[in-house]
Records
---
Amino acid sequence: MDWQTQLITVYLTVCELYRRELWIHIQRFAPYADLRFTDEEVITLYLFGILQKQREIKTLYTHADRYWRDWFPHLPSYGGFVQRLNRLADVFPALLERWSPAGAPATPIGVADSFKAVLAQQARRYTAKVAKDLAASGYCPTKTLYYHGVKIHVIGDERPGTLPRPRYIALTAANLNDGPVLEQIAPSLGYRNLFADKAYEYLSRQTSLPFTVFTPVRKTPGQAHLDAADRLYSTAVSRVRQPIEALFNWIQAKTGIEAASKVRSSRGLLVHVFGRLAAAMFLLNQWPDSP
């Protein structure tokens, strides 16, 4: 499929959803606002730019102004485009929900994990002031990284041989642990078994959850090595949950979601996170051969 056909597909899909439901989430404008560049065009340009690997809004706008001006003849100035985009921040979570699976899970097995979007890292996190109502300082043990940002929690259907299909996605501050997020939505999950990493380990001992949580075995204090049975069990659990790590890597490769250092406001952070997730879910659902 050439890029022109892809652009038309995204635009027509957005227009249909906008007419049916997205208009509810749009901020009202003053009577004198110039709306020749429509909301549908703003959403389409952002989503298509992300799918074309334009990682920053500035480079996305510059590319559109140089190469796509015939398709967007009323494209405003860069400042005007950013302002319009931030006004549409509430649209992208609705798009993400629309492009995520609904109804009962397709499989009794779920996988859960989280990944990060980083606004500032290491020493710069102490002076970070962007989106303090959404972001906080946290630590990523996988990459031994201290950062200021948010966590994106994902729970999805396990699908052998391919990427999990995300069913529940939540955004929290980076200092919130993964387990409590899962506990909050546990009653609405339709899984019998859920596989996760060691951050959820304490949930595997709870009997109040409507499903069984499986996590790799933690070493006890002073324990140098796991015994053979625990190693085999941990390997088996990790093999089931590994595809969600592959999903995160795929989302990062397609959208660059983890690098959020250019974000300058809370609404900009919502656009960055949910806009890129919506673009990834559009790709996963509308063009499933792309991964």
---
Amino acid sequence: MAGWLDDRDLPIETGFEGEPAPGLEGLPRMDLAPVEAQLPSLVDQAVRGPVVLTRNGTESFVLLPLDIYRRLWAAAPRPPVIEAEPGSGKRRRR
């Protein structure tokens, strides 16, 4: 298939160690070993960059390596932080 590389199977390494990526807290985890046993080329390709998976002819999922996900998370816009002094104690009543 075009685009698939025929490199030997090397261990998967990421530039980060330890804690999970921000924004992934509480999400279910899946052991990748069964997928890698059945489709090693898919996992190998996903380590190199994003892979779009289709289901019933429609784009359904994107596999991202954690280092790319971290960059995406860091670049995402955040809601503005509004700094304000405590009010004078008067509140409007309805």
